[in-house]
């Protein structure tokens, strides 16, 4: 049973495509509402509300949990399908305490089945994935996350899509 959820951005993300950035609530509020809808008691959910990015969310969640309930011995990171590896890499770098068990999970959704009215169309999803690919490389170089080896064929596909100019709306 889920006993803690600690995830948030303090502001909704700016709108630059027809996708999740047009949500009226923060991700934490949306995830909290889904968890409550699935039967998790609201009083078992802790929301971290100060972060503006994944690294801050991890560090700030650590502090919230340490100050309220003590640190967990097991952590399950639930993330969007395209962001699991970057979340793991960020967690490995940003979590200041020891973890006995760590699991990263996301829904097993085929790329063509992922677009919908909440996340946007296929172009929106590809735009987000291209931005996350760029972050996998640049954030490791900046020290925000651990290095993750990205296969050459994946980089080749990234470069083709990036050079097309059609999917660059989520680049840093």
Automatic annotation (TrEMBL):
InterPro entries: Cell_Envelope_Assoc, DUF218, Rossmann-like_a/b/a_fold. Residues 24-97 form the DUF218 domain. It comes from the Eukaryota. GO terms for cellular component: plasma membrane. It holds the Pfam family DUF218. This is DUF218 domain-containing protein.
